[in-house]
Amino acid sequence: MEQLLQVDNLVTQFRTAKGKLKAVRGISFSVKAEETLCIVGESGCGKSITSLSIMGLLPSNGEISQGSIRLGNEELVGKSDERLREFRGNKMSMIFQEPMTALNPVFTIGFQLREPLRIHKNMTKKEATAKSIDILTKVGISSPEKMLNQYPHELSGGMRQRVMIGMALACEPSLLIADEPTTALDVTIQAQILDLIDTLKSEMGMGVVFVTHDMGVVAEVADRVMVMYAGEVVEVGTVDELFSNPGHPYTKGLLAAVPNVDDVDQDLSIIPGSMPSLDDQITGCRFHSRCPYAMDVCKEKTPPSFKVSGTQEVKCWLQEVDNNGKSTTSSGSG
Ligand code: SF4
Ligand code: MG
């Protein structure tokens, strides 16, 4: 399948009172068309910052200081805000956990759906209206004509989520980024939304980056999984590899932390200890203070990413012991 998104050695940092702090520390990954890559990890691991870096939607004190993000043949790093705006909603779009982030309370749903189609696709009002009805039908709205005249506050949370997905998909982007899009929804609607994204993905041939901390959701939607910890990618592999043969102690911890479906705010706190903060100076493996397998080398030297298979890589010294003699690739960062 066609390579869609290629991220290389991405470093994203924030200007703070304590100086420049790295939230994303030299990560690389790719997504193909019709593929769903799940990014998992605890709050603050850099998964949302990675999404926002791709979208060009970092907060004003954030910046990409290194690396490359290619969407198709286009390099996104260094593009002007104006050019990035053209990409957003057209070639790439994002859905958020909280739909009101994306919906404007003072405009009707119809206006908000039509506008991007008129801007990005040069549609007439009539064409854009027809397309909006089509999109709302696709996302499972039963009376789309009526909804065009409604305002966001008139809709239930589940309906707003569907509308936001509709808005994100209206221009048929090649890349969809979904950041915890179902966390705030009840289980039934969550399942419907996940199905919906999956169906639309194959219908439209999109690549999907799905950010979540819920391994249950990962099992359901992922083709491949990328596990992040403290700004780094610690493991990547197919969903089967990750679930049947997790290589990194952190991944094992995530899989052991059975999520409680009643507690939407729970964030994998079952792994003892907490993630280092951005300004912690750590030598060696960034997980070593929490790792039950930590060895002397772990405190001194940053582990490279070891290839476990053609598709699985694990950033952990245990793999060197396991695979002694196998070729390794370093993923940089220190
Ligand atoms: Fe644990 Fe060492 Fe592997 Fe880090 S490198 S995850 S500390 S065993
Ligand atoms: Mg987040």
List the helices and strands and how they pair.
Blueprint: E1 3-16, E2 19-32, E3 36-40, H1 47-55, E4 62-71, E5 74-75, H2 81-87, E6 92-95, H3 109-121, H4 125-138, H5 144-148, H6 157-169, E7 175-179, H7 187-204, E8 207-212, H8 215-221, E9 224-229, E10 232-238, H9 239-244, H10 249-256, H11 296-300, E11 305-307, E12 313-314, H12 318-322, E13 328-329
Parallel strand pairs: 3-8, 3-9, 6-7, 7-8
Antiparallel strand pairs: 1-2, 1-4, 4-5, 9-10, 10-12, 11-12, 11-13
Helix pairs in contact: 3-4, 4-6, 6-7
The chain binds iron/sulfur cluster (SF4) and magnesium ion.
Please give a structural write-up.
- This protein is of the alpha/beta class and 334 residues long.
- The protein folds into two domains: 3-91 and 175-281, Rossmann fold; 103-172, no CATH class.
- Helix content is 33%, strand content 24%.
- It is built from twelve helices and 13 strands.
- The protein has helices at 47-55, 81-87, 109-121, 125-138, 144-148, 157-169, 187-204, 215-221, 239-244, 249-256, 296-300, 318-322, and strands at 3-16, 19-32, 36-40, 62-71, 74-75, 92-95, 175-179, 207-212, 224-229, 232-238, 305-307, 313-314, 328-329.
- It has a nine-stranded mixed β-sheet with strand order 6-7-8-3-9-10-12-11-13, with helices on both faces.
- Helix 3 crosses helix 4 and helix 4 (125-138) packs across helix 6.
- The longest helix is centred in the middle third of the chain and has 18 residues, at 187-204.
- It starts with a strand and ends in a 5-residue tail after the last strand.
- 43% of the residues are buried.
- Mean pLDDT is 88; it is low at 260-269 and 325-334.
- Iron/sulfur cluster binds at residues 248-249, 285, 287-288, 291, 293-295, 298, 303, 316-318.
